[in-house]
Design goal:
The chain has about 375 residues and is mainly alpha-helical. The protein is about 50% helix and about 10% strand. It is built from 16 helices and 8 strands. Strand 1 (about 55) and strand 2 (about 60) form a beta hairpin.
């Protein structure tokens, strides 16, 4: 019995030692790979320690002031708590930052301004706020229009990365010319130049770090700084991504389309040898199923511009000819549901094709267009 207990104890001891060895090996491997748990308290304490001076656009952040240091650490900890966001930031920056960096360089503007787009939208095409700000750079409509972006029911260029970036660069340049500081320019970008001018006048201070502002703007520069710190050295915070993990830059051809009538995007996608979805994704400024009347430069898949104009003209001409035979004449007692049932299409499709809404009223004799479908009889036969 005693011998049996000794054997069992020895087995327990061996298992315990093996467990400790395996655990120790795991810790050594983790440390040697630099993959410390970024969410552990001690790792977070280490992560927010600064070993060198911090600047924004070459302007010093006064971290010798403990209140400033506290505000930065708070925003950094908040950012680090959103691990999924950080992963997406890193992956998306490879797609978008090269263009921003190039345009900033060409305009002799600080590279740090690129982090504003991450703070504003996390580089999401359709980001929007409850204040009506939209797109990568979160323009509200009046500011967008002021800096040359089209915003209407058909087109919203705030969602176009390249056009909105060009507008944001012009706006930031003007703000710098007004305030003489990139830090104040960024603050004004967040709260508006008139509001910041007022606070500077009333408070008799013209340094961002000495101003008492709305909470959102109080935190704004520190959020940008936190983003800069993480994206400048993601490995320090436990993010090890390879080049294969990153999203590729957008590659496309551009074509100009001038039309005197709305053109279905299906025609454009067919001419570009691609799908409706691809055209919408390459041109997120288009809000509907049609390209409106006017002249537009559109992005299409790389290589599709070769022969595009000829294909587009042929497909459009064919569609225009077929369209005359695809008109349904509204009859007495008709509504969209009855017409949709009669034509064996959905109500939503009729609304899309004709620019109608669920509250649209139909008039007797009104022409309703149904997109030509192969092997379907002309509507003139149904109208009889």
């Amino acid at each position: 019995m005693i011998f049996s207990k000794i054997i069992n104890l020895s087995r327990f001891t061996i298992l315990l030692l093996m467990s400790l060895l395996i655990s120790g090996c795991g810790q050594i491997t983790s440390t040697s790979m630099g993959m410390n748990n970024p969410s552990s308290p001690q790792s977070l304490v280490a992560a927010i320690k600064l070993s060198e001076p911090l600047t924004f656009c070459g302007e010093e952040v006064p971290l010798y002031d403990n209140t400033i240091k506290e505000r930065l650490e708070r925003e950094l900890l908040i950012c680090l708590d959103n691990k999924d966001d950080i992963i997406m930031w890193i992956k998306r920056t490879n797609r978008y930052f090269p263009y921003v960096e190039n345009i900033l360089k060409n305009n002799s503007m600080p590279d740090d301004l690129k982090y504003i787009a991450v703070a504003e939208s996390a580089l999401r095409t359709h980001a929007s706020s409850n204040k009506g700000a939209v797109g990568y750079w979160q323009f509200i409509e009046p500011t967008a229009v002021k800096y040359g972006l089209t915003v209407n029911n058909d087109i919203d260029e705030r969602r176009n990365f390249f056009l909105s970036t060009n507008a944001a660069i012009r706006y930031l340049r003007e703000l710098y010319n007004i305030f003489g500081s990139w830090t104040l320019a960024a603050a004004a970008y967040n709260m508006g130049e008139d509001g910041l001018k007022t606070e500077i006048l009333v408070q008799k201070a013209n340094n961002y770090y000495n101003l008492y502002l709305f909470q959102e703007t109080q935190r704004y520069i520190f959020r940008i700084l936190a983003i800069k710190m993480i994206l400048s050295n993601p490995e320090k915070y436990g993010y090890f991504l390879s080049n294969e993990d990153l999203y590729n830059p957008i590659d496309f051809d551009q074509v100009q389309i001038t039309t005197d009538q709305p053109v279905p995007l299906n025609i454009i996608s067919e001419a570009a040898n691609t799908y409706f979805k691809t055209i919408r994704e390459l041109n997120p400024q288009i809000r509907n199923y049609y390209l409106p009347t006017g002249s537009f430069i559109l992005n299409i898949p790389k290589g599709a511009s070769l022969g595009f104009a000829e294909r587009f003209d042929n497909i459009l001409s064919k569609w225009i000819k077929e369209k005359d035979n695809q008109l349904y004449t509204v009859q007495s007692g008709d509504n969209l549901s009855l017409i949709a049932e009669r034509l064996n299409v959905s109500v939503k499709a009729l609304m899309i094709w004709n620019g109608l809404t669920s509250t649209s009223k139909l008039a007797v004799g009104q022409k309703i267009f149904v997109f030509p479908v192969n092997n379907e009889p002309p509507l003139e036969q149904i109208n009889e």
